[in-house]
Amino acid sequence: MKENVTLLDFWAAWCGPCKIMHPVIEELEHEFAGKVRVVKVNVDEPTSQKMVEQYQVGAMPTYIVEKDGNVVVQYVGTQSKRTLVEALNKALD
Fold first, then answer.
1. Count of domains in the chain?
2. Domain that holds residue 36
3. Over 80: is that where the pLDDT of 3 sits?
4. Burial 54-78 (b: 16+ CB within 10 A, else e)
5. So what's the pLDDT on residue 56?
6. How far apart are alpha carbons 49 and 52 in whole angstroms?
7. Residue 24: which CATH number?
8. Which of 15, 16, 73, 83 gives 79 a disulfide partner, CB atoms 3.0 to 4.6 angstroms apart?
9. Looking at the annotation, which residues are catalytic?
């Protein structure tokens, strides 16, 4: 099955809210395995700067749901698991 839905997780090691959200993202990665590709982007890594600029990420955490390469929704700050699950399910429809 082709994973045409992606969850981008922009985070940083120094970001308290990112640490709080880490277990939620891990759960989503397991629950949506084979359906959604989860990409964790450490904004402090030099190799991530192109993606940070491309998606105009200015605060962490930032979560972007893409379908077929197009942004479906973007959230900044901590989110409930339910919010992210609903966004992923909508993108999968």
1. 1
2. 5-92
3. no
4. ebebeebbbbbbbbeeeeebbeeee
5. 95
6. 5
7. 3.40.30.10
8. 83
9. 15, 18
